[in-house]
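Quick one:
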Amino acid sequence: MKINGVQHRSVQVDPENNTDVLIFDQTKLPFSLETLRLTECAQVAHATTSMQVRGAPLIGAVAAYGLALALRVDSENTAMERDAAMLAATRPTAVNLRWAIDRMLAKLRPLTPEDRVAAAYAEAARICDEDVAQNEAIGRHGLDLIEKIEKKKNKSGRINILTHCNAGWIATVDWGTALAPIYMAHDAGYDVHVWVDETRPRNQGAALTAWELGSHGVPHTVIVDNAGGHLMQHGMADLVIVGTDRVTARGDVANKIGTYLKALAARDNDVPFWVALPSTTIDWSVNDGVREIPIEERSGLEVTNVTGQTADGRIETVRITPRESAAANPAFDVTPARLVTGLITERGRCAASAAGLRSLFPEKAGR
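Output:
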């Protein structure tokens, strides 16, 4: 995608030395666009836990490069397995992270230590390229949904799409998942408008989704998290598209906290609720998402404190709750498959069910 007319990916290897890994520091957005240079594995782990890098597909890709950085220091078996385990433990809910690490280890374990560094960089690059291709395909399959709404409206009236959290290109290597169909619809000339949930407590919608939609010229409006149901009741949302951090083999969906409530409101108001994901986000070993998916508990400070920009341009963090009040911060919730209209993957759309997923990925049946 482009920023000020310049093409960017969310992660790349520094072309000047072909070793350092460059990402955007997402904790600085939307007030400044800063590039973070990662030179060692520990920095990658910190960037992931601190959410300087976030988004299920992207943290997997960056972790793959993190292992490559680790191998530059020590490529022997014990060190490689230790560093891989450290990276995999940084975020427990998003399955892409473990998938990327497992794929890297499968490639690297048969090799001699001397051959591992070059192979690691090459495999991480393939993971990134595949992510871009998958997300572009998701965009094409999701675009058809928007085109059908436009035909239903007889090409008159704006198409209003609601999204939750950030599932755009800044959360992937490029294109995004939930936002990819929106970008394609906008670029094709469709009159699309996005309702952007603020997504408390970290405000990924208000800070990141709004920033990247604005950078691409897509009309959008930021709303408080609790406004979605009201909009649906009054016919102001034609479609909901969200991303996900893990999908079970039967179609349950783990996504940013608050997604479940949007799905309930969508079902009550007959608004289609679609989930966009690359197949790397499917956890074929898990069926019951509510009982089996680990939900990350983050610091209560994310709830009690808010960072923003003052009128004179300073970035300040302020407390918004009484000091004596405790705060809980589950980062994700699980939307049962029965509330999901369907899944948008790189292979097409399907029902959020075991049969639906098997129809697109028959080679995974029985796993």
